[in-house]
Specification:
With 363 residues, the chain is an alpha/beta fold. It contains 13 helices and eleven strands.
Amino acid sequence: MVLILRNIFLLFLFFICFKIGYSQTGLGINTVVIDPGHGGKDPGAVSPNNNYEKTVVLKVSLLLGEMIQKKFPEVKVIYTRNDDRFIGLAKRAKIANEIGADLFISIHANAIEIPSANGFETWVLGLHKSQAALEVAKFENSAILMEENNEQTYSEFDPNDPDAYIALSMRQNAFLDQSLILANAIQKDSKLKLGLRDRGVKQAGFMVLYRATMPAVLVELGFLSNPRDEKFLISKSGQIKLANHLFEGFKNYKNKYDNVDQSLTKFTEIINNNQSISLLDTGKIYKVQLATSSYKIPTLPENFNGLKDVEVYISGKFYKYTYGLSPNMSTINEKLAMAKKAGYESSFVISFQDGKRLDWLKQ
């Protein structure tokens, strides 16, 4: 009887924490920052016909913001710039961080000496896997050198030093998984809908993404150095198509994570479906922590690289996702290996005692 009363009390306590956590996290996509790359004294990429990246991306960014505001008037859209002005990379991320944005979308256009290079690609923060990826990041980060006092602002980073990019990419990004999901939502069907080559989702060390404290992506709309891409990028119809494609990616991402019901009925359903933390577990148990999110992600296998029986618990302002449950460390280490094999390289083991999170053990 005492155990039953204790469990009821814990359940009540968790519901109160759930309600508090909901109000703290500001669930859903409420604010998005759109970042048109370059601007002012920094033209960005320049085509052989003297078309500027800064001009193209500003037009597409403003169109994207208008589409979001029209369809989702409750969403606050902030631009890092809405005219032709120069803004440093650190300040762009600072704008998003200070207002507590839920998403950061940085919009750019590519250029390279080889005119045959073409296509649409989306980037997230990470370690480059090719020299070409490194060169894209180096070009975008070179805007740092146009900033006043850049040596003080970016004392930890030299945009011309390849080794600096390795250090940059090693920064633990709590929002990498969400950034990848957003990037894939934007990249999806780009060849079919835009008629541009699908260059895929990639990773590299972009300073503007490094400093963002929310899911963040950088989109390269196409190559101004390629005649066909350039014609599409500078045309009004092409800019509308690009903005609409970005909007569809945003909309699909938003719809996926917006439907969080804070009612007791929904809360009970989550418990019944084993999609909440097992607060009523007794004794010491181990789990593998996969990811952290500022809003709730449905714990379906397709959202976690095929891993089944993923659970979620609330810690402060974040949802944290775990895989596996065992009182045996050897067993949980096997789950850890499976998580890493599924792509969660930064996953680690955590422990609970009678439903309470203990000091974590990173492995």
